[in-house]
Predict the 3D structure of the following.
Amino acid sequence: MRFGSFDQLPRADWQSESQRYQDILAQIELGDELGFDTAWLGELHFIPSFSCLASPLMILAAAAQRTKRIRLGTAVTLLPLHNPVKVAEDAATLDVLSNGRLEFGVGRGATPVYFAGYNVPQEESRERFEESLEVILRAWTSERLSYEGKYFRVQDVRLTPQPVQKPYPPIRIAANSPDTFAIAGQLGLPIFASPLINPPDKLREYLDVHRTSLKSGAKQDVALAFPVHVADSRAQARKECEASLMHFFSMAGELVKPLATDPVRSYEAYQQLQERIKHVTYDGIDRDVGIFGDPDYCVGRIHALREEFPMEEFIAYFNQGGLIDHATVRRSMALFAREVIPRCK
């Protein structure tokens, strides 16, 4: 099993964007040294307390110059918001700068303010996503690109640079709504998923949908993200991460509230999510999906989660909520890499 880390870089009022960027670059560099397989960064917009990470490809390009081995992934690039030709160019540039270490994670996005800010109707997100992905794949596999779609039109252009990885960098789809699990399977693509969005019983059901949608002989590849904090004891872990974790869910509840009060087609999973977030407690997260404690406890939790969910990559979200200080996050990462990962491979 592979092990990655994830961050979406929330910024509290007392934190500067400059410092948060330096923190995440240092943590990716540390992950490279510690042996993590992948560093994943999200793309979020217009809500600095929830994320100041609007351009993960740019941050990962900087990280590429400070690392040697670790793979660098977007989790995810929000395709409906952007011109796919520009995305293809920028992602290929990162693949060149990293000497072929890009993991290209893609998704639709769910937060209404993103679509309003980019002047994109949210109900068009699925069609725009599918067109964008098709344009990007053609751009990376054709000498010259022409495309005529409902939303995007390109006439006989030659894209440069081209990715180092052939035929193109690995692509992974964020699957949150039930139909996306099936679409990803039909396309033969790996997925991201999270038990924080779909409850464990639903997630198991949807992972089965993805598996059964794959073509005969295709191997399922699932990356699941979990909140993680490793300390000397269970009590110490709770003391260090509880406030940050609950801060995250407080913000998340506000962001998805519009989808509950004014539903958008194909975002039904988020309507149920908003209701669940109202009742989130630290004890509930700890019981269901959290990995909070000393190394021995965390090893046992990961083994139990592997029994519950099929996964090829375990993605650790070390500072969910963004309020844990940088030195404490580094210590948690180091404990996880040195005392947990070797016993869970």
Q: What stands out?
A: The first strand starts at residue 2 and ends at 7. The mean pLDDT is 94.
